[in-house]
Specification:
It contains four helices and five strands, in the order αβααββαββ. By secondary structure, the chain is α+β, with helices and mostly antiparallel strands.
Length: about 120
């Protein structure tokens, strides 16, 4: 009897683990900022800085997300799905919600953008 229950239990456990892992995208909401300006001068964001941010982002400067708790995330392009990240280039100084995988190295935090809302 134990053997008959072991395989279905293992399969169910594996499926549960897989489905939980697949649904674990992180979600962040904040203002899209160009990091070249923002890191140099944190006052350079918001509607007053929109034109400059648009120019910097379209030149290829790194894009960031400034959250309401003043955390800054480097936004990274998902190599398998570039469309959400590309759409961010038209969202400078706007508040957006992005979903994806949070990553960090050496104190730098980022998010691989999989979904833009």
């Amino acid at each position: 009897m134990k053997r008959q229950m072991l395989v279905p239990t293992l399969v169910a456990g594996a499926l549960l683990t897989w489905s939980a892992g697949a649904a674990r995208a992180d979600s962040l909401t904040g203002e899209v900022v160009d990091l070249a300006c923002y890191l140099h001068d944190p006052s350079e964001h918001g509607a007053a800085h929109r034109k400059c941010a648009e120019v910097c982002v379209k030149k290829g400067m790194p894009i960031g997300l400034l959250t309401s708790d003043k955390q800054v995330y480097l936004l990274l392009e998902d190599h398998d799905n570039q469309k959400p990240y590309a759409a961010l280039k038209d969202k400078a100084a706007e508040t957006v919600t992005v979903e994806g995988e949070k990553v960090s190295q050496g104190g730098l935090q980022g998010l691989v953008v999989e979904v833009l809302k």
